[in-house]
Automatic annotation (TrEMBL), chains A, B:
Name of the protein in its database record: Pre-mRNA cleavage factor Im 25 kDa subunit
Organism lineage string: Eukaryota, Viridiplantae, Streptophyta, Embryophyta, Tracheophyta
Biological process per Gene Ontology, one example term: mRNA 3'-end processing
PANTHER family for this protein: PRE-MRNA CLEAVAGE FACTOR IM, 25KD SUBUNIT
Family stated for the protein in its record: Belongs to the Nudix hydrolase family. CPSF5 subfamily.
UniProt feature coiled coil, ranges: none
Source species, domain of life: Eukaryota
């Protein structure tokens, strides 16, 4: 999976599978969501986080960039239904930071493989073997860090020849049931889209823009 | 074009045409943009706007809703290149309000037909006959007005059974050359995405979110 050509192939195959579920041309404009009560939630051993200052983090990004080039992260937009409204699954770290589930790709790893690996690590019981159960759908948006010390933007100006980080958001459709097993030091939350929209202060620019990125889809609440 | 089935047909046909231009599976993730200097800009007679107060407007929306139901507007996201950066075409009304080109559908009119008609009215020389020259692409997002007096949101809560207005944004790809003929009382502007992003105060929530909606596309600047 180490080259661009293969990556496109993998994504195309995933798209074909999605379309096979329905004869409708517009299938990919729809998202079926299931009640939160369809899912089981458990916990597993804590994940070790690097406890570091902002300047440590910048130094780590710099040395990683020197070694591997552009840092690419992939994050999942996963929806469930609660009170008849779509809720976004978010992970909360240390009662403060909210994150979409996902993380950094390994060098040469494809977006889809990397996102499946990260979702299994943060949301499933076993780290290996069940990664393909995550149905990674279309890319919803991309955010770029133009330089180590700057914020993320949803565009790349021509003056930025060597961006330092790219974060890609993918829609991940859930099946009708699933066990979520979350590391003890993370909290998995379901937050209504109404609360997230334009709420930069609490959720940051990427998460608070997710309701807009989803707005072109028709979201079907499935009664089970 | 008065029923849903036909509308889906028209959109599917448009999508097929777009895909025929290239054998790449990922074609629809790309947008080719051309320098502003490729285009000719002229003016034509002013369009008459309804000069009304906010309460006049709400009353007009109410009586239109009673007669025709949900008001649906379609708006175009059109890009050109300037200083090697993508610029969004906006119409400015009375030196203050910025708008995406587009407008309200007639009862029973399809999204694509209505957007072509509105683009011809606001951006082309003749009102009829050349409407099909607008290549209306994918829907990027939708905004809903839940009630006459409320703002627009990119989602529809379950409590809102009868939304009053829906605004749909479509990507419209320009050809390599085009004459834009704009009513005298409107100004056509090309605004860089960098200036629009999160600039709610100047551009409002819909336009200021457009850079995010475009972020999943790879934008190719075509040298001519």
């Amino acid at each position: 999976m180490g080259d661009d050509h293969m990556r496109v192939g993998v994504e195309a195959a995933a798209a074909a599978t999605v379309n096979d579920h329905s004869s409708s041309v517009d299938h990919r404009k729809e998202v079926d969501i299931y009640p939160l009560s369809c899912y089981y939630f458990g916990s597993k051993e804590a994940i070790v986080f690097k406890d570091e200052t902002l300047s440590d983090r910048i130094n780590r990004m710099k040395s990683n960039y020197a070694a591997y080039g552009l840092r690419t992260s992939v994050e999942a937009v996963i929806l469930v239904e609660l009170f008849k409204h779509p809720h976004l699954l978010l992970l909360q770290v240390r009662n403060s930071i909210f994150k979409l589930p996902g993380g950094r790709l390994r060098p040469g790893e494809s977006d889809v493989d990397g996102l499946r690996r990260k979702l299994s690590r943060k949301l499933s019981a076993s780290e290996d073997g069940n990664e393909t159960e995550w149905e990674v759908g279309e890319c919803l948006g991309m955010w770029w860090r133009h330089d180590f010390e700057t914020l993320l933007y949803p565009y790349l100006p021509p003056s930025v020849k060597k961006p330092k980080e790219c974060i890609k958001l993918f829609l991940v459709r859930l099946p009708e049931s699933r066990k979520f097993i979350v590391p003890k030091n993370l909290k998995l939350l379901a937050v209504p889209l109404t609360q997230i929209h334009e709420n930069h202060k609490t959720y940051g620019p990427i998460i608070s823009g997710v309701p807009q990125l989803l707005s072109k889809f028709s979201i079907n609440i499935i009664d089970t």
